[in-house]
Every structure is written in structure tokens, then in C-alpha cells.
Specification:
Length: 138
């Protein structure tokens, strides 16, 4: 897997994935940015959210669950000192669907957290406390 990050002036950077997709990252105005894109640390959380959401949906589809929507809301805390690493991350899933079985949703979230989500497992190995929960909505 390869990516390329190019400087776009001031605090702006453009990331390009190995598959050719581009994303603009930028800093806040008080750090020389123009707020034209997410911060790099926000991108890290977005990657984590995408990784675990992909797992949960894949597992639920294989379990033949009729999911109509899946949202992962992520909150994080960072250290006060530099480097301002993540210390705690919480992933809250809101799963919507028809006749969803709670035990299968719980299993999907657990399997992602404990076995499949490379991003969250990597962060946990680095010392980040990651918790997960979910609610089911009809």
C-alpha cells in the first residue's frame, strides 16, 4: 500500500492514495491554514471509522441481516502534551434495519474490534484505549 502527500502551500497538503483518490488536508487559520479540509489526525479517525464500519457491515450482510443504515460516531481524547497522541477513542454504532437480531449486531461489532479492524487493533497495540458500543434502530 502506498500513498503520496504533496504540500499545497501554507498548512495545506493533498494526499493521494495508491488507487488514485485525492483528499485535501489543511490546518486551522491560527496555524497558517485556511480550513480547506480535515486535519491529519481527523483523517486517522476517519480511517478507523471506515475500517470498522466496513467490517461490521460485511459481517452483518454475511449474517443475512437487513441493514438499511450504519453510522459510526467516533469521539476521541488526546494527550495534553506533545506529541498529542490519542489516548481514548470511543466508537458508537447506530445500526438501522428490519428485524435485526441484537446478538448478531453485537457479534459484528465485537469481531471488528477484536479480530478484523486493522486500524483499531494497531492503535490499541500502541496504547490507545478503544471502546465500542451500539444501538439498534428500526
Amino acid at each position: 500500500m502506498n500513498v503520496k502527500i504533496s504540500w499545497g502551500g501554507n498548512a495545506k497538503f493533498v494526499g493521494e492514495s495508491g488507487t488514485g483518490h485525492k483528499v485535501t488536508m489543511d490546518g486551522p487559520p491560527d496555524h497558517g491554514g485556511q480550513n480547506l479540509g480535515p486535519r491529519p489526525m481527523e483523517m486517522l479517525l476517519l480511517g478507523l471509522g471506515g475500517c470498522t464500519s466496513f467490517d461490521v457491515m460485511s459481517i452483518l450482510k454475511k449474517s443475512r441481516q437487513d441493514v438499511t443504515d450504519c453510522v459510526a460516531e467516533i469521539t476521541a481524547e488526546r494527550a495534553d502534551e506533545v506529541p498529542s497522541v490519542f489516548t481514548k477513542i470511543h466508537v458508537h454504532f447506530i445500526v438501522k434495519g428490519n428485524n435485526l437480531k441484537e446478538n448478531l449486531v453485537k457479534r459484528a461489532v465485537s469481531l471488528s474490534a477484536e479480530k478484523y479492524c486493522s486500524a483499531s487493533i494497531m492503535l490499541e497495540k500502541a496504547g490507545v484505549e478503544i471502546t465500542h458500543d451500539y444501538i439498534i434502530e428500526a
